[in-house]
């Protein structure tokens, strides 16, 4: 897997995951919607950890800074 996520992209994804976790922890979101959001937060954290987004690959999106 070639990295295709930059640091800003990763930071935004981690921040969104933290917000979702707080919404779940504070019992603001409940039920099936909460589980869907938690799954999304886990996906955001995993993609941030690996610096690779599978949805970016088919579209040729790359937010990494490239060295010239």
Structure description:
This protein has 68 residues and is mainly α. It contains three helices and no strands. The chain has helices at residues 7-25, 31-50, 56-59.
Give the biggest beta sheet.
none
Number of strands: 0
Beta-strand percentage range: under 5%
Discrete helix count: 3
Any idea what the radius of gyration is?
14 Å
Low-confidence stretches: none
Overall pLDDT score: 92
Per the principal axes of the C-alpha atoms, what is the gross shape?
Answer: elongated
What would you call the structural class?
Answer: mainly alpha
The secondary-structure element order is HHH
Q: Helical proportion?
A: 55-70%
Q: Whole-Å distance between the termini?
A: 20 Å
Q: What's this model, at a glance?
A:
The chain has 68 residues and is an all-alpha fold.
List keywords for this structure.
3 helices; single chain; elongated; 68 residues; mainly alpha
């Amino acid at each position: 897997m070639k990295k295709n996520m930059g640091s800003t992209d990763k930071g935004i994804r981690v921040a969104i995951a933290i917000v979702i976790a707080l919404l779940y922890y504070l019992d603001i979101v409940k039920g099936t919607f909460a589980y869907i959001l938690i799954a999304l937060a886990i996906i955001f954290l995993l993609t941030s950890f690996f610096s690779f987004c599978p949805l970016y690959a088919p579209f040729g999106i790359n937010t990494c800074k490239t060295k010239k």
